[in-house]
Amino acid sequence: MIESASKYLSLVALLVGLALVWLRPGQEDLLKVDTVISSLLKYEAKYVEENQPRIAVGYGACKDLFVTGSHMLANVSFPANPDNFMGVGDEDQLVRMYGFFFKAGAAAERFVHGQELWKELLETGLKDTEHRWGLGGNAPVMAARFAREGAKVLLGAKLSPGLAEWLPEGVEVAGGDIESDDVHLIMEYKRNEEWDGVVSPRANRFIIHHDLNNPMVSSLEQFRQALPLFNPQLLVVGGLQMMDNFPFREGERLERILLIRDQMAAMDQDTRVHFEMASFVDESLLAELTEHIIPQADSLGMNEQELPNLHSLLTKGEVTTMADSNPRIAEVLDQMREVYSILSVAKGTNRPVTRIHLHTLAYQAILTAKGSPWKNTGAAAVKSSLTAHRHVCADKEVKPEKSFLIMDDSFSTSKEGGRRVPFINTRPLTCWEEEDLGVNICIAPVLVCAQAVQTAGGGDNISAAGLVVQI
Question: Of the candidates 44, 45, 51, which has an alpha carbon nearest to the alpha carbon of residue 152?
């Protein structure tokens, strides 16, 4: 009897052991993610902003109409010749361009040239049974995030009374009222979504618009008048991609850019200035911004598409068509160092860059100059990482079952001569100093949302969350 029971228990133990071996890969992944979440949340809890910093954010606002890309292009085949264009001139260009970025999993934003085409696209979007409206525009989205994080905010934008009601408490608006808001059509697609056998590598969006108000930065003058009394600790400039491919009269765009430059230059040296990059396709516009706007900012925010664009313009004098949607850490760190080396040099009345924040799907990387006023670089990377997940999942709670990691188990700090840094689950934040360049660098993994609800506005929320703990 005892021998029989012993054999039975041995068999049970063997089956349990086999089950554990069979289940281990999934369990190990879940345990790893759970450990990383716990570690990041503990770090975040140590740095809660309680001083209610004053932050001014410009420019512009819109209503975002979120639709599924598959609805907009229902019964349309994947294009035989996907391509990139400066703007959307007709339906064929829309299909080819959407296919171009869908296949790469890259975000993009383009101006629709024809009024009639724009009306047709809006009508199609509104027929999507899953369509929804949201607060849009770089400045309002960042302003809303700042306010939710406890800041007192001044927003430079013209808003309709209805859109102003969508702003959270703590946001003061300078810019005046308008009757009708600009609308952005956000064509979204999911990770692994299939279109005629072509699979998207990640969730993302393609944004189209026909803005008439935002390209003119029409809130600039009233915003400028309100700034001295508000006395911000941080001025954030964004939304200038709305100027891309807009039909300005000769010299009009540069006039507006120079007025923005003057506004940034007028800030007291104790007020830090941040410029949020975006999807620029017009090389002449990016060149004007690089010449006039970026030299007046001591902090820059950008994603994995925008960093190579800026790097290429600074080093080669040209913009990139599209970059890797999931770049290796060593590659982007080298690009960040080069950009910093060029823009951190004091020249005339410029503000040397002292901070660069890169937000990607897999990780957050923040570089700050040693001795600069930017504090809590590690906390900023962690806060940005958690905000990325919360925004895309539309859930304040970070859940292991809705998360996965795509950051490598180790990374090199440079493509040439870099040291290998292991990824440690219990200490996912990695920071180090580089004496030769005089900078601190911190990298935190992003808990990628497995059930993406929204991708538009992700960069703005991430960048704002990182800034608010560093002021």
Answer: 51
Contact 464, 145 (CB under 8 A): yes
pLDDT in tens, 236-284: 999 999 999 899 999 999 999 999 999 999 999 999 999 999 888 888 9
H or E segment at 151?
A: none
Distance separating alpha carbons of residues 396 and 384, to the nearest angstrom? 13
Q: How far apart are CA 50 and CA 53, in angstroms?
A: 8
Q: How far apart are the first and last CA of the chain?
A: 74
**Is-contact 56 235, C-beta < 8 A?**
yes
Q: Compute CA distances 436 → 329, 341, 433, whole Å.
A: 19, 11, 9
CB of 85 closer than 8 Å to CB of 243: no
Q: What residues have CB less than 8 Å from 353, skipping those under 6 apart?
A: 294, 297, 298, 299, 300, 339, 340, 343, 344, 369
Q: Quote the pTM value.
A: 0.89
For residue 168, the 8-state DSSP code is P
At 97, is the secondary structure helix, strand, or coil? helix
Q: How many CB atoms lie within 10 A of CB 421?
A: 15
Question: Residue 421 pairs with which residues in a beta bridge?
Answer: 411
